[in-house]
Specification:
five-stranded antiparallel beta sheet, Chitinase A, domain 3, mainly beta, about 160 residues, 2 domains, Thrombin, subunit H, four-stranded antiparallel beta sheet
Length: about 160
């Protein structure tokens, strides 16, 4: 069976940047299961896997626009430390959910001063060219329940 919209796909993958640094991998964590066409994974990888089948190995090079987007410098903001509600041990790299005009957004602490903290609302992988090395383990029809829920159930997927 070929990967098509609304199929369940199970993959092993390694994700690297253009310098060859491993960003993420399914090694040790088990395979990733996703529902093709539901936005469970980045659009560029979905497009690269479309039409492939179990046993195929795919190398995909994904531009930022088809992954987590380009960096938007306006999403970096300096805020008063007091907005962190008395959290004493704030450290670089910590992530917090913040309210924006467009709803909740995850921000990452990128700079710290005595009174002000700089947070970045960009996804940590925004602006980065991503390279995937993928082995397709399984392709199957999605169940009615998986289609209704918009994600895979069972091994490598969501557990209710």
């Amino acid at each position: 069976m070929k990967i098509a919209e609304n199929t369940v796909v199970v993959i092993d993958y390694t994700l690297t940047d253009n310098d060859g640094e491993v960003i993420d991998s399914s090694k040790g964590a088990g395979p990733l299961a996703y529902l093709q066409g539901m936005g469970n994974i980045i659009p560029g990888l979905e497009a690269a896997l479309l039409g492939k089948e179990a046993g195929d190995e795919v190398k995909a090079s994904i531009e930022p626009k088809d992954a987590y987007g380009e960096r938007v410098e306006d999403m970096k903001q300096e805020v008063p430390k007091e907005l962190f509600g008395g959290i004493d041990n704030i450290e670089l790299g910590m992530q917090f959910e913040s309210e924006s005009d467009d709803g909740p957004v995850m921000v990452t602490v990128v700079e710290m001063g005595e009174e002000m903290i700089t947070v970045d609302g960009n996804h940590p992988l925004a602006g980065i060219h991503l390279n995937f090395d993928v082995k397709i383990r399984e392709v199957r029809e999605a169940s009615k329940e998986e289609l209704e829920h918009g994600h895979v159930h069972g091994e490598g997927g969501h557990h209710h």
